[in-house]
Amino acid sequence: MYFxxxxxxxxxxxxxxxxxxxxxxxSVFVVLLLTVIYELLKVWKTTLEKQSKPPPLTPVPGxxxxxxxxxSPVFEHPVSSSSLTNSPSEVCLAPTDLTAPTxxxxxxANSWLLHSFQTGVHVVHVVLGYMLMxxxxxxxxxxxLGVMVGSALGYFLSFPLLxxxx
Length: 166
Prior knowledge:
The protein has 2 domains: 1-55 and 104-166, no CATH class; 59-99, no CATH class. It has 4 helices and 2 strands, in the order ββαααα. It has helices spanning 21-52, 68-71, 104-136, 141-162; strands spanning 8-10, 17-19.
């Protein structure tokens, strides 16, 4: 197979038959918009993943905290055989005074809904990606250029939405 620059092509479905330059311009524009949407979905997926990260765990007031520094063994002289050298200190076993509220039931329901929404966005993203791949596999130069320009334009427009710049 090789790329051709004909204005006659069938894209994805039988009803998307392109005959002539006007239809090709419209088809390239539609493919370009689909590619921009694909890039925006990619950024949206990343944003949703950031939102779905669980909050840091906070101990419940009145419970004991065994933090990693408290569990690290204290090594003394090899001759010393005290059994208390590898045990946590009294400071590490003291009750914590953190009074952060914990909302477990609401968090669970919201995380399930968010995960379901993420799954739907992922499915749309994958389907759109495969459709664009099939458009490129029509081996039409104009459709290929529409996908490439749409990808560049979509990335250019969506990158500032990521908030990665400092």
